[in-house]
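User: Can you predict the 3D structure for this chain?
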Amino acid sequence: MKWYDADKRVMPWRGSRDPYVIWLSEVLLQQTRVEQGTPYFLRFLKAYPTVDALASAPLDDVLRLWQGLGYYRRAHLMHQTAIIITQIGQWPQDVEALRRLPGIGVYTSAAIASIAFERPVPVIDGNVIRVLSRAFGATVPYDRPEGMRWIQDAATHLLSSSRPGDYNQAMMDMGAVLCKPKNPLCNACFWSDRCIAKLEGRIADLPAKSRRTMIVKENLHYFVILCKGYVALIKRPDEGIWAGLYEFYRVEGLQKKPPLDHNLFSTGQTVQVIKHPLSHRALTIHLAVTLSQERPEIPHAVWVKLDQLHEFPMPRPLELYARELTLEYGRTQQSHAHRKPRQGPRS
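Assistant: Here is the predicted structure, written as structure tokens:
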């Protein structure tokens, strides 16, 4: 606690006891680095300064603001929770009640309860697991039930009863600043002369883990169907990857032509391939740009002006590609506008 009071990280939500601010920061930082998540937090808080403002916002606007963070289900659940909090009129203060809200699990409920309401519950994330495992030389893998029980017991035993919220943040800061996954700053750490991992030379081996994450390779095939300055978009289902976002016309398997009325399309296609890694998937995205003379009948499609693509929330890799597509279209239009008209034959 002395180290935290002197050297804690400066973050825009730090020091707040507002459960909305704490919840917003925790949800945005799940699976996201602080440096990446901070600008999103500031934009969200400016757009939706209260939970009531977030609850009344259209989901598409929330998803658009979320673009680039990934794990879009978080945004869906966050919006649902904001509506529920607005309906009941206040935030629950105990862990069990918080966990009943959409998208709030063990970690987030403990963070809100301890930081906002000073409830004596430990917060356990990857940083805390790493600090405790190394500090006390835990040998049982934390991804086994007995290993997580040990982590939970140790965190509970060490918890500050007078300042549980600050203590939990101090433990997370210790893991993020000092006890980093690689190249930890042992020489700057106040615990280094008592750290079992350091004394026994086992820093690289801890925390112990038994399971390896399997990365699934997946190919996605899209047709970017253009027609007179418009492009076809389709909204994804509310479940699964990229839930509720817009994408181009997607087909199963590798096809050279979209399974529509082929007579409407020109023969030439430009194909672009994008590699996009996720935590459990390695996506290879194939985009075939196809020009259509007339709008084909595409179920559930909306036709969007290219210069208005930015108004539709899209998965990050498709959003970046859409920017390039819009810029290229703008350059083409500008080129046509400045082209000198052909002079007719002289009389």
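Residues 111 and 123 are 6 Å apart (CA to CA). The mean pLDDT is 88.
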